Amino acid sequence: MIISVASGKGGTGKTLVATSLALSLKNRERVQLLDCDVEEPNDHIFLKPVITGSEAVCIPIPEINEKKCTYCGRCAEVCVYHALAVFPQHVLVFPNLCHGCGACSYLCPEKAIADVGREIGVVECGHSDGVEFAHGKLNVGEAMPTPVIRRVKAQANRDGIVIIDVSPGTSCPVVESIKDSDFCLLVTEPTPFGLNDLILAVETVKELEVPFGVVINRAGVGDGKVEEYCLREGIPVLLTIPLDTEIARINSRGITLVEGMPQWKKSFIGLFDRIQEITGERSRSVKR
Ligand code: SF4
Ligand code: SF4
């Protein structure tokens, strides 16, 4: 089972939920935690994994052989990302705009373009206290997180439970991380900002047709509008974590919730059981 942990808004407690869920289940099943928040991965701060392997993530970018090039302009025409500019006697390549799609080299009539790899990030794998771990790191200044996310997701082992920590928001990296999940947990906080971004996140997971439920973190900080919204829309609230200075203190010291307050482990196991019930009910109704 693949469970993605997402949030429309940053700073809602997504990492807290992903890491504690992974640690709570490790004695029950084989568990993998994949941190796909590649622009700012932070699960490793809490899990402190032993890194056992790493591999560079490269994308193919064009290299022009100007001896063969006739400056016809075809490559610049087909590049929807405007990563090429053709002048009467020169072709300019803008590597940071290139998405590595390969269209230019494929369509060059003179076969004057070769694809060369450019490193945009790295994937590191390891383990931490019985949890298999992988995360991606996008190089500073790079604009394309999705190839790195794909490589992190390629580490997923469907024999057990895979928990994916998704970047905040609702843009391409979020879609790339959530798609193919069996379930998505949306972590929010009961504030007007939290509600606004939760509504956007709900629209995204509905488009992806991934079943989902909500975790409310810092309950008590704002108003009751998130609960009202979930009730009205028939969205299950699967776990509520209160606003608590002890939880904040543990979190700020880089300690997971279930390690700092082991009584929470039962709640996270209960959360997983509810997810299994929901996905089981859904697959039964699809079969009917
Ligand atoms: S399509 Fe090929 S031949 Fe034409 S300008 Fe680009 S590199 Fe040169
Ligand atoms: S590989 Fe794709 S994105 Fe990159 S320059 Fe060629 S056409 Fe543009």
With strands numbered from the N-terminus, the spatial order across the biggest sheet is: 3-6-7-2-8-1-9-10-11
Structural class: alpha/beta
Distance between the termini: 21 Å
Radius of gyration: 22 Å
What would the principal axes of the Cα set say about the shape?
A: elongated
Oligomer type: single chain
Number of helices: 11
**Molecules bound to protein:** iron/sulfur cluster
User: What fraction of residues sit in β-strands?
Assistant: 25-35%
* Poorly predicted ranges: none
What does the average pLDDT come to? 94
DSSP strand count: 11
List keywords for this structure.
single chain, 288 residues, two-stranded antiparallel sheet, 11 strands, binds iron/sulfur cluster
Can you tell me about this structure?
- The protein is an alpha/beta fold.
- The protein contains eleven helices and eleven strands.
- The chain has a nine-stranded mixed sheet, with helices on both faces. A two-stranded antiparallel sheet has the order 4-5.
- Helix 5 (146-153) packs parallel to helix 6.
- It is elongated and about 70 Å long.
- The structure holds iron/sulfur cluster (2 copies).
- One iron/sulfur cluster (SF4) binds at residues 61-62, 78-79, 81, 83-84, 98-104.
